[in-house]
Amino acid sequence: MTSFKYLISGEQRFVAVVLAGEAAADTRLWICLVPDNPTVGSGWVGCWSSGTGKTETAYSLGRLLKELNAEVARVGRTGPFGAYLDDHLFFDGWDAWGSGIPAPISNLAPVDVLARAEGCRSSDDLVSRLFGREKQTADSPE
């Protein structure tokens, strides 16, 4: 599994994590949101996945992450029980899974994924690294 993360700037500190590869379900690309200091046993604040069999491009993922950044800045909150989104977020062409841990990635605990994910400076950096790595993998002889 390949995973990348970046801190979403704003009043509340959320981290967006992008998961790709067999452990995250080989037919989907996952974007999940977590507070920057998750506790063991906590779920995702929100998760979205690309449609089954739909191939995302660098452009489409970049556009979605920019939209996610703006929406999280608008509805991200911290309350007595931790971080949450004050509204439901839906993105065209993406399945919304809500908070918690979606069944297809139930074996991926947010605190563990966050610890292993490769850090990126921004959403643009993440897209560049993910699609650069995919190109290198596709170009490499097997």
Note the main attributes of this structure:
142 residues; alpha+beta; 6-stranded mixed beta sheet; two-stranded antiparallel ribbon; 3 helices; 31% strand; globular; disordered C terminus
Fold and architecture overview:
The protein is α+β, with helices and mostly antiparallel strands and 142 residues long. The chain has one domain (2-139). The protein contains three helices and eight strands; from the N terminus they run E-E-E-E-H-E-E-E-H-E-H. It has helices spanning 58-75, 110-116, 123-139; strands at residues 2-8, 14-20, 30-35, 44-50, 76-79, 82-85, 94-100, 118-119. The strands form two sheets. A six-stranded mixed β-sheet has the order 7-4-3-2-1-8, with helices on both faces. A two-stranded antiparallel ribbon has the order 5-6. Strand 1 and strand 2 (14-20) form a beta hairpin. Helix 1 (58-75) packs antiparallel against helix 3. The model is unreliable at 136-142 (pLDDT under 50).
